[in-house]
């Protein structure tokens, strides 16, 4: 198998869920599969998108919704993108300002009551991304219209805790370790985890352009194989997760204390309001391959939410678009190389926090089923 491009430049944002890309490089799993991963630390999701489109990056740690928005021409020039694999499940959160907790706001119902009385300022990391969708879904499930009863800002993930401390927002939704950073700094509390919104939800993906996959299928397959092996290594033991936390805490990666990363990586949660628990749905990087398979239904869900909130003006061909974006055949080849289990179906069923079931079978009906929408 001839590798078309042996050096691949992969962009990432400083978040815990970039870990499988970092470990693929650090452990030499990229070289095992005939490529060399050169990591590029980025400062925003918009920057990741733009560098993918110009070719400055070959691939990237990316948001599901960013990929679909770009593919459908929402907020940028339309360009065919490709999802090679899922990088992780779970492990994001909604953080509320300590100031509001001191006013007695300690749960979703209290947030809703306050939101009906005054406009709260929330931040997410990209207008069409996962964090915007988790935030909107959570607010709407509590009876708050996120686009009419809130002011929503876009802030890079690593700047969330500092902006919360400065009083620029009342809360935010972002990936770890920035929610735990806010708790440790005493400036915020975890009012909800993303896995409470959707247990075992899809999160980041390994994305590239459709053109890259067409020109470099063997390179793309090698990337997936290397990252699958790194994902398996991370999930193999608590010791591996601790070692990973130590490595990614370095300045060239996440640039924060390993103590900010490791607790939630091991499922140890505290919310900053006196509650602690062991989370059965904490961040997973492999989960016997289930966390990595690019389920078509996962991608379609983000399109249903983009339609719900008016980001998509008309209903897309949900399944047709997902089939085009998700490189399931290439993924299965890499899974076979790495002896990674493959699920029986490209669709999966989940029950979200409001009791609704999402199984990907009737996305248009699902998108139109919500009481709160644009």
TrEMBL record:
Keywords for this protein: Cell inner membrane, Cell membrane, Membrane, Signal, Transport
Source organism of the structure: Massilia eburnea
Protein name: Nitrate ABC transporter substrate-binding protein
Compartments reported by the entry: Endomembrane system
This protein's record includes keyword Cell inner membrane: yes
Chief location category: membrane
GO cellular component, one term: endomembrane system
